[in-house]
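Inputs:
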Amino acid sequence: MIEMALVVGLLAITLRTASPLLLASLGETIAERGGILNLGIEGAMLIGAFSGFLGAYFTGSLVVGFITAIIGGILTVLLFGILVIKVNLDQVVSGLAINLLATGLSLYFFRIAFSQGNFPYLGQLIDPMPIPGLSGIPIIGDILFNQTIFVYIGLLSVPLIYWILFKTSFGLRLRSIGEDPFVASYLGINVERTRFISLIVEGIFVGMAGGLLTISMFNTFDTRIVAARGFVAVSIVILGRWNPWGALTGSLLFGFTQALSLWIGTFLVGPAAPSISQLLSLLPYVVTLLALVVGGRKVRGPASLGSPFAKE
Amino acid sequence: MPLPFIFSTGIEEGLSKQASFSGGSEIDHLSDYALYVRGISKTFSNGVVANNDVTFGIIKGEVHALLGENGAGKTTLMKILSGCLKPDRGEIYVNGVKTRISDPRKAVQLGIGMVHQHFTLIPTFTVAENIALVSSSSRKLELKAVEDKVRHVSKSLNFEINPNTRIEELPVGARQKVEILRLLCQDVSILILDEPTSVLTPLEVEDFFRIIRQLKNDGKSVIIITHKVKEALSISDRITIMRGGKTILTIPSSQTNASELASYVVEGFIPNLKRVPTARGEPTLSVKGLFIKGDRGEMAVKGLDLSVHSGEIVGLAGVTGNGQKELVEALTGLRKVEGGSISLKTCDLANKPPNFVINSGISYIPEDRMRRGVILGMTISENLALKRIDKEPYSKKMLIDKEALDKSAKELISIFGIKASDPCATAGSLSGGNIQKLIVARELTNAPNIVIAEQPTAGLDVKASEAVHQKLLDLKSKGAAILLISADLDEIMKLSDRVLIVFGGKIVGEFSSDSLDMEKLSKLMLGSE
Amino acid sequence: MQLKISKSTYRSILKSLISVALALVVTSVLFILTGANPVLAYYYMFVGAFGNFSLTVETLVRMTPILLVSLGLAVSFKCKVWNIGAEGQLYMGAMVGTIAAVSLGNTPVTLLISIALCILAGMAWAGIPALMKTHLGINEVITTFLMNYVAIYFVQWLIAFPFRSPDTLFPESAQLPAAAILPIMVPSTRLHLGVLIAIFLAIPLVYLLMMRSTFGYKLKAVGENPEAARYGGINIKRTMLMALVISGALAGLAGFFEVSGIQFRMRGSLSPGYGYTGIVVALLGQSNPIGVAISSIFIAAIYNGAFEVSRVLNQPQGIVDFIQGVLIIFVLSSESIMRFLEKKGVIKL
């Protein structure tokens, strides 16, 4: 029975650690289906985490934090959108720019808000919300139905986004832009507007993904808090073949490796234990790189992904 | 009515005919026109005047050919009518009502639709998805309804198409039908087709003309853009000729003939290729049992054999997509060969890198000149040295000699008549025709053993085309082996000593230039023989 | 060498100046909002960077790692290979150099071997994502960034456990042997040999490589149009691989110079993000070695000047990152801003 409880715990943690990756990769899937490669997702998550933290800290309300995180995410992705859609700049470099800007902004305003040597933290975090009735189911209840709101939103969004992308006219239009924006534009599809809509949706998801780091996972903010999760999410989108179900699979896989490395760490004893458990922190990054080597080679994504589109 | 190739006579004759046609009280006539434009002018940002005070009209239910050479302004005019371009000046009347066509969507709403030379289909989508993209108005994607409509409309035109096939799996001819189908699904009444037969074999053209007649019977108006006089005569009710951005004349097809039309199309230009009789030499390039994979992993070239001798031009004819692209890329080292051999005299070239191929004296004029042939952001002299940058005099011990680069560029600019201000200007500052001259200059100097010319004159005007053809003939007379790949059968027939027909990745027939049988050639191109 | 400023060079310079000016204006707004006089702030920034001889030397010392990293990145960016893993390459170079130096001890060749190995380590660390890009087609932006985390965590582990200094309490390496320390060139300053190597060796070499050699030509061709470059017989895989590896080499060297010229021990906090600063500098310098050199002095001055600003005007730390973030946005947009100004007739060329 103890073994069973441990496995259940491991899987429940898997979902928790997977949730920021799931939300971020779902958002990125939508953007990339429209042909926009947003490598500024790392920075957008950072701003989401920062604005969520500020909102929650100064109002004392986690709901406000949740909302400000989303706003932060949307604004950052929109700025990226203006650079690549309106000014028509290179998507990769603009993404890098957004990441650097996000680090600069959050670091500076964090120091404005809290003086040097002050380490603010939130008094409470968004806790798991057991779903009445379902959370009581043995094993499955503990794994699936005793989670935070972020996990529920992520899981429910998978079929929803799949439906939007593949079963609605909007999805068809968005995907046609991702394949060939020139043709789409010729056919009367408003490329700019459709892409901006897709980016706003991405912003919502990425904002949540960042916000959950500060208001649900850790209770404090640091400019290193995102720790490449945005880039892992971009990798998951590739590995998941630009499909929401693929994003779910990928996120769970990475959530699992992360959960596993934490889990193993708790079992280690002896003089080498701290050394090994520190070394395990490398695992998620190495696994992502290896997964890209195995599953990321020569994949066919949306044909226009990352390429510029300028009307005459 | 034989006419001399004299400018003034042609113009006066033309103007008088046009005047007699559109004269009288204009208002009465306007309502007869499905579409009428007046005083259309368009100048591009690079200063090219594409349309200059153009007047043009199409009557309800007619097939109208817009005839003219490349660069005459035909496509520009039609792009204005289909809402892709905005005119600088001019008025447009649809069914007698003055209107503005702001974008392609608006044009379709007015009943005007265009099939471009470059198809506007999404290759990874199915036929139905491509059509749903423009016709589905509901939030939810109603693919079933679209599929039914596709079946219904295609039936009425007597051709079979499975609405669930992906576009990339369809041959070019079928894609064209999908384009027409999509316009019909949007209830378009005026169809504009830009060089529709350029992707078809002569036999397919028959079937295509049948569809055009069917459309006419259904009360649609059809505008066909073409540069082929015979084609214009055989399909259209009326013909409008464009030259140098102006409409020269509009005339009923029944009242004219090929030589008269030709005299209007090309202003006082008499083709004058100088041919030096050349003895066919030893085989320079020989390809045996070649197998090459296409982009999607399918075998695109399946056991192809061919040889090109020194001092001959071999034309490779075939419908686009029968392995020509893969063959050329394999010959130039840009694509892997799965099996078979490519040899230049005794040297093996299969699966050698591009650099090796270049050093063995193979020149290549690529079809996609902007993407492959030139680096727009680099200077003209840098572009001219592209393939020889590692060699003297361009560089010594890995350091570039800029003076040598500029000196050689100045020579080539004057020899090939490239209109360039300065060899240090970027290639991007050149016009399309001059970019092709730059590529030709680079590829045809340094005495190549073999020249692979892929659509070398596509998009060039008559004079520029003629210049390129002359250069190829000159090289041939100096003993080079030339492989000419062109979708333009006229070009192939004009230059080649031998014509090979490629179908399904194999050579299926060969003709010598003096014993061409067009019907047989056509059947071979379609693989029906 | 004749110095001829062509129209396009002039335009490039103007673009960079406009970006800098706009970034400083935006930052001024921030100063005003936080109650500081922007003119005063920039004055103190200048004073902090160049106020006297020793401050100027300190700015040069600060410039060195930034210059080395960004020269490398300029090579890589020229062929549109976006190496954002210079931070990781810098750490790996520093670590391997440190391990070599500490293991060798005081021998006449310690410094040379350590320098050679730190360059090799940076090259190897950049080589992995380079091979992933050229042979598997995996986007280098993702891989180089993820490898930063692998490198930094790995280095932190190395100095926390296997290579931990026996004589201090912190997770840091043992002190470098005297033979591995870069000699000081100006007494009673920190102006070490590495500064001179960066200025008098690295700049001319990279200039020659990029502006005069056939490799530089190939870099540009691959960056502008890889399809045409391949058609022209240029081995684009090799060019991209070389570009990334060269940038890794310079980042690795930058890392070890920081250890052997400044810190004398490998520490987890070796770089305050020079790898990322290098991106801003390379873009600001428009991948031109001279432009990059001038830009690195500028950014180094902001780094050092910001200390003075925060000390005197009680401004928060982080102003450096803020300026860099704003600057990069303007650098990217500068072409559009230029075109807008030309259209309005504000600028005539």
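Chain B is about 35% helix and 25% strand. Flag for discussion at group meeting.
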